[in-house]
Design brief:
Layout (H helix, E strand, L loop, with lengths): L1 H17 L5 H5 L6 H20 L3 H21 L4 H10 L2
Helix pairs in contact: 1-4, 3-4
The chain binds phosphoribosyl ATP.
């Protein structure tokens, strides 16, 4: 899981740097979508996750959780944060 998150975060950081035209991630870092779009997605997906949990729909829970994790990592990158800061906070709670 760590490797998966690190690989995804590396792709997100690359898209932020290179801004390929056909990249959804890159569009989030430009005025085309921007921070508000990321925050809206996190709000929508949280609601969808709650509904999936209420339905005990495991496939949908995994799908919505993945959407949230992806947009959360985009938000961290947007704020010039990195995975280490998230890990440090989680470790501090152990
Ligand atoms: N993990 C994701 C990921 N999760 C979700 N999304 C996109 O997030 C968008 C919104 O997701 P939704 O589930 O809300 O889908 P939707 O309601 O149909 O979207 P909208 O039409 O409302 O925008 C969709 O366009 C999804 O494709 C993602 N886009 C990219 N990634 C990862 O980022 C990598 C780079 O992607 P690009 O930047 O597109 O090259 C990919 O290889 C993936 O690993």
């Amino acid at each position: 899981m760590d490797d998966t998150l690190e690989a995804l975060f590396a792709v997100i950081e690359d898209r932020k740097e290179t801004l390929p035209e056909d990249s959804y991630t890159a569009s989030l870092f430009t005025h085309e979508k921007g921070e508000n779009a990321v925050l809206e997605k996190l709000g929508e997906e949280s609601t969808e996750l709650v509904l999936a949990a209420k339905d005990d729909d495991r496939e949908e829970i995994a799908y919505e959780a993945a959407d949230i994790v992806y947009h959360l990592l985009v938000l961290l990158s947007m704020k010039d944060m990195d995975l280490e800061e998230l890990e440090a906070e989680l470790e501090a709670r152990r």
